[in-house]
Amino acid sequence: MKVFPILATGLILAMLMVISATSENRTHHIGLAYTYTYSDENRSLQEIFNGATDADTIIIDSGTFTDEYIVNGNNLSIQASDGVIFQRGYNEAVFIVNGDYNSFNNIHVNAGGFGFRVQGNGFTLTNSTIENVNVDAVDFNAGENHYLSNNLFRNISGSYCIDAGSINDSTILNNTCHNAVIGLVFNFAHNNTLRFNNITNNTYDGIHLNDNSDGNLLEFNWVYDNPRRDIYIYNSTLNIVVNNTLSMEVNESVGGNQSNVIADNTIIGQTTTTTTSTTSTSTSLPTQNSQVPLKGGWNLISIPLST
User: What CATH code is carried by the domain that includes residue 183?
Assistant: First the structure.
């Protein structure tokens, strides 16, 4: 009569062990100089992506990779060692990221059409170099909560370092962009933060805020030596552009712009080092410690404005 409770207890313990094993976050390695675990030996990088479960870590130890890689998983951490190279042909993408909240670190792309094409949310790219591509270094379809930091984008012959599309609530911090057609382009993008980026020596423009890109914060960026325009705002409102270093005044299109705050930007080569302007005739500039629109709401910040 006591056998059945014992069997039931044993079955429950076995099930718990299976659940625990399948929920374990795994680390996968690919490369020539590593003893493989989790049956990763002789598997391609794409096969490892396909077999990874949420929150796994993928470490790329060595090699040159020339295929297109599609990442459908979520919460993956992908890290490459120094010396790992990704290359593709003309107009071809290296990574297509469809899943959410995946992070890439120390990735080096040195040929192709796109470095990354991002479809999901929460994409993170850090400490990486994307160069010598002929379309975009990073191309966003949309999404939110993206994070780009400490990356180098250069020699983007066809389009943009970052085609930010209609991303929202994202941070672009401390990146360098040289020798693209245009550095960074927003379209219908809201509540993003750009700080401490170096966007210089591009063919035409530095930064575009286009077509109802509203509520974005641009501050402490170096955006200069872009021959046509450093920062261009078209038909977009409630943006804050302050404390940037530029080589020319911010260019706003006529009509459609309202309540953009443009203040205390240093213009290289001018005797005066600050500028203050707005295209809105219905809303005056805020005074110090007044409330200004930021990150989709009203926040109290201090902006020293020149007069």
Answer: 2.160.20.10
